[in-house]
């Protein structure tokens, strides 16, 4: 039996994505060859790359002056590529967790970093509000969903300078106004597909403004010019991303994902708030729709391992919280069915009956 997969990433993918990708590995569209044993520069693979870029733009609603790139190196390489390509002197960063801190660390190698807001004072349990953004910055960097802490910003901020967003863990979970961003990037391995590919959505006019030399492979302009085919792209991951994008389109697009994500999160947060054995860790306004973090209430603290064991016996996987927060984290990405959330809630209620 398939388990309820609450993993934070890599994570659950839609069944048809796994099925279609597995078939393409066996035999791509009946050509008598596997997806992973052909050149990327063929009439077999090129249309897949083009379709993935087109589907990405269509689903997120990006105007024509944005380019979609599929690169290697993970979101972590983007932490360095962003300042390498965009920072002449100074950039603003919003410090909302470990991933934001890692992005800040890399940016400091290239210039001055101004931390515009931080929630470090409370173990990143909220997303800072009313952030004042000076206009003398080369760009501002934001992590829209904080995978480890379960906090998320639920709107697109107005920014007087280029806004760059790490959307690794909430890409296409809610509609965004792309025009408010100069660049959106992330590892694909949550809402978009398997590990191995990084998506970058970028507006070309933000490039070419820094005086330093940029190695060819780290220059976004190289990848724009070559359509993400400067070097061998991660063909397997890109195929699965395109299957995920096709699945999302069939489901009704990002609006539909948002509706389902809100419904799933509401059910689970309601149970966390109702059940005396559990409590949420993020401030209510900042609660993530993607990573729902909770712990045992103080009087049941010693029951944590027992609950995890019990949940596991009921077919739940990936529920252990990150060590920096503890407790539990239920990741409710796009592909997680609402039935899995209901099964987890049943589990929490049954545990309450046994213990409270
Ligand atoms: N940013 C966020 C918000 C993440 O959740 C992660 C990975 N969990 C990363 C960046 C790093 O991504 P990668 O492993 O692709 O480098």
From TrEMBL:
Gene3D superfamilies xrefs: Aspartate Aminotransferase, domain 1, Type I PLP-dependent aspartate aminotransferase-like (Major domain)
Localization in the cell: Cytoplasm
Main localization of the protein described in the UniProt heading: cytoplasm
GO cellular component: cytoplasm
Record pathway: Amino-acid biosynthesis; L-serine biosynthesis; L-serine from 3-phospho-D-glycerate: step 2/3; Cofactor biosynthesis; pyridoxine 5'-phosphate biosynthesis; pyridoxine 5'-phosphate from D-erythrose 4-phosphate: step 3/5
EC number, UniProt record: 2.6.1.52
Domain Aminotransferase class V: 5-343
GO biological-process terms attached to the record: L-serine biosynthetic process; pyridoxine biosynthetic process
Binding site for pyridoxal 5'-phosphate: 75-76, 99, 147, 166, 189, 231-232
Cofactor note: Binds 1 pyridoxal phosphate per subunit.
Positions of L-glutamate binding: 41
Catalytic function, reaction form: O-phospho-L-serine + 2-oxoglutarate = 3-phosphooxypyruvate + L-glutamate; 4-(phosphooxy)-L-threonine + 2-oxoglutarate = (R)-3-hydroxy-2-oxo-4-phosphooxybutanoate + L-glutamate
Residues annotated with N6-(pyridoxal phosphate)lysine modification: 190
Classification via Pfam families: Aminotran_5
GO molecular function terms listed in the Swiss-Prot or TrEMBL record: O-phospho-L-serine:2-oxoglutarate aminotransferase activity; pyridoxal phosphate binding
Assembly description: Homodimer.
Record PANTHER family: PHOSPHOSERINE AMINOTRANSFERASE (PTHR43247:SF1)
Name of the protein in its database record: Phosphoserine aminotransferase
Lineage summary: Bacteria, Pseudomonadati, Bacteroidota, Bacteroidia, Bacteroidales
